[in-house]
Amino acid sequence: MGAHMRTRPFQYGSFAVFWLWALAATAWSAAPQAAPPAAPATEQADTAPVAIAITDVIPGSERVLTRLRDIRNALEADNSVTVVGAALPEFSRQSDEWWESEGSAIQQLHSVQRVNDVEWQLRLYEGQVNAWSGLLTSSSKEWSAEKQTLGRLLADWKATQSALDKTAPIAVSSKIDEVLTVGDAVQRLFQQKTAQLVAVQDKLAARMTRLNEIGGQIEMVRLQAATDLLALDTPPLWTALSGNKFEPSYYEQVHESVMKFSRDAAGFYQLYRRRLFLHLMLVIALVVTFFRLRRLSQSSDKVTPKDLERYVFDRSFASALLVALLSVPILYSEANPQLMRMLLIPAVIPALTLLPAVFTKPFRMAFHVLTAVYIVEFWRYYLPPQWSLVRILLLVEALMGIGAIYLVHSAKTAGAAPSPSPSLEAFIRSTFKIGLGLFIGAIVANLAGDFTLAEFLVSPVVRILYMGVLIYMLAIVATTYSIMALRSKFALRFRTVQQHSSAVADTFRRLARIAAVCLWIGVAVFNIGALGFVQNALQAIFGAQWKLGAAEISLRDVVIFTLVFGIAYILSRILRFILAQEIFPRFHMPRGVPDALELLARYGVLLFGFLLALISAGVNLSQLTLALSALGVGIGFGLQNIVNNFVCGLILVFEHPIQVGDYVEVGQHSGQVQRIGFRSSSVSTGDGGTVIIPNSELIGTKVMNWSLSDQLRRVTLRIPVPFGTDPKQVVELFQAAARNHPDVVAYPAPSAALDKFGEGSLIFILRGWTKTERYESVSQSLTLAINKAFQDAGIQIPFTQSDVHLHLPEKAGSELPSVEKLNQAAAGVAASPKSTAGS
Question: What pLDDT, on the 0 to 100 scale, is given for residue 839?
Fold first, then answer.
């Protein structure tokens, strides 16, 4: 023990030294090293032209001409410059007209919502310019590489022409001239394409400069709008109405608003007419799929939908239409946000059809009012910003919002809706107070003349609430059809659905709620104008770096590593579940093979995910070689026991002498194996405890495995019977008790026999076989059954008794001793350890 305690500090100290050495070596390898000496000038210069041998001119010319034709065909086929050059003028015109219209509008209104829309459209324009620039850059790199290859090739052929003497054959000189002629034509094509490319790139750079200027102006308007939130930027509402400024031009302004909407709709149709056809096909496909799924879904007790899910499932057309309409942001991600809202307005039709499944009548009425407010909000966008009717409509929106809140509040107080939990009820009350306060504040600000604040308090709330209801309905539809898909005959073939149907359905519901919340948060962040701020903040946070010696650590790398490894961990759990529940039970495999394959698959995915996470985080794996080598040496000193247990764990996995579920005896402990890890294993004992046993003990010591050969264990009972009892009767009683027990197997058949003669009794033995996990209960119940059989047969269980014989001295005329003397003599016999008694 003392030697062991003296050795352990040395092992740990050695291990620490090796680890420090490994870290230092890794840091040294990561540190910037001295630059290598510069190469000689002759090595850096281009290779000098080399004349081609006369014998290689004719065969080589054919290969070169083929190569030149391929280059020319590739140049002529590359129409990226032509496509971008043709689309750029129209793109520039549209962006200029857009800014001329929207720029004046946001400068007059100082509307935060309008600024958000304009900024979103600007990012779409910038994305288009960046995409074109990337396309031209890719073409430029390809052309540059081909041009360098062509230059070196023509230089060699020109050198060959210069070195050609007059005695050379005419065919050779003709081939050289042909190669140089074709090469010069390809070079001129390169120059022409390069000139066009440079011209288009200059136009793209100028357009990007213009977009950057627009972005700066938008940012100035945003800052001004933030400043004007608490400033009176317009006259009071009653003053504006008394001026009667909009009456003379009422018809013209309405006409201009309608024409603007028509132009936007026509432009949208021209840009996305093909995609609209695909959208229509998507609607038809969803309708067919939902009706098909409705027909395939069968009545099953394994997956039970809720009442609202049954209601949604019975309205397949409305569900398909809602999903198709809410896919607008995905299908038309390049469109203007206002046009997206235009396509989202028809979504109210399927939403109203499905609302009774979710909300009571007062809540549905509140959604009707909210829909009307959303439509007014949409049309207010097209009205002239200086028109007083814009402020009137904003006032109407706030009043209708208050009415919607009152409907919801009255439904809650009247008990029309189910009673929520105390925490949810507190959240609802807080939300009502916040919404009511925002709308009242918007009314006061609008009346006082602070239009910027009034719109900021109304527009985001209306859009967020409307989109929140639609997103919630979308989550219910997605959950409904996912659960109904689990009720189909195809899904019921899977063991996971058969055995864990409720858990799978709850998982779908949970994932749908999480996705809906995340989507709603994104919509809310965009509508309150904080999307750009959040993006910039995340970029600043993730871009922060810390230096630890020569190494640099950034939060971005840490997040990427955690995210990639977390995904790998989730995938390993999913793969383990699929293997255990779906794949392995369908095949007959030797004992232990499924567990070994499952463990290998799980840790293989984790190892691959760990390496992928390191690469994604920017870690150079080659720098870890020295550290791993030092770690291997340190393992030999400080981690001997851990490595020993690890290797023994591998032996247990692949040799599988012990498996999960086996009943084992290891030393003084016995129980069922619950887990086999790489370092230790867990055994659940009969008294409810769990013993952690190192794997080295399971490999290096004697272990009794009751489940290794088969799943049966023999129950052996030795029971004494008094002398004089008929042995044949006892044997029959024992065998009958064993045969009548339901957990005693018929083969091997139970047996009973007279084992030996004991002290005062006959010892009979009963042997029977049962399942290993039933051993304890069968042993106890058999004992009770035999006791009952003995009582019915009148057989008594013998008990140990002793007869004490007293030898009294023989005296003439002596009398028998008295009772007191006999008691004293008996007490003396019991107290004296050396006294003997005959039996």
Answer: 32
User: Are 337 and 366 members of one domain?
Assistant: yes
End residue of a domain, out of 686, 709, 732: 709
247 secondary structure, DSSP code? S
Element containing residue 704 per DSSP (H, E):
strand 703-705
Question: What is the reported pLDDT for 816?
Answer: 54
Task: Label residues 522-552 b or e (16+ Cβ within 10 Å = b).
Answer: ebbbbbbbebbeeeeeeeeeeeeeeeeeeee
Using one digit for the tens of pLDDT, what is the confidence trace for 266-282? 878 887 888 888 888 88
Q: In the structure encoding, which two tokens stand for residue 440, read together?
A: 């009242």
* 280 and 359 assigned to the same domain: yes
**Domain end marker among 503, 537, 571:** 537
Token digits for 777? 């209960």
Of the candidates 602, 679, 685, the one whose C-alpha atom is nearest the C-alpha of residue 645 is: 679
CATH of the domain at 688: 2.30.30.60
End-to-end CA gap in the chain: 53
- Using pLDDT thresholds of 50, 70 and 90, give the confidence band for residue 301: low
Task: Specify whether 630 is located in the same domain as 717.
Answer: no
The parent domain of residue 6 ranges over 1-26+546-638
pTM of the model: 0.62
Locus of tokens 């919607």: 404
648 located within any domain: no
155, 231, 550 from 179: Cα distances, Å? 11, 77, 55
Q: Which of 622, 552, 631, 547 is nearest to 20 (CA)?
A: 631
CA-based nearest residue to 201, from 193, 72, 150: 193
314 φ/ψ angles, rounded to the nearest 5 degrees: -75, -5
Running DSSP on this structure, what letter comes out for residue 494?
A: S
CATH number for the domain including 751?
3.30.70.100
Query: How confident is the model over 425-444, as pLDDT tens digits?
Result: 566 667 777 878 888 998 99
- Is residue 575 within 8 A of residue 602, CB to CB? The reply is yes
CA distance 450 to 456: 10
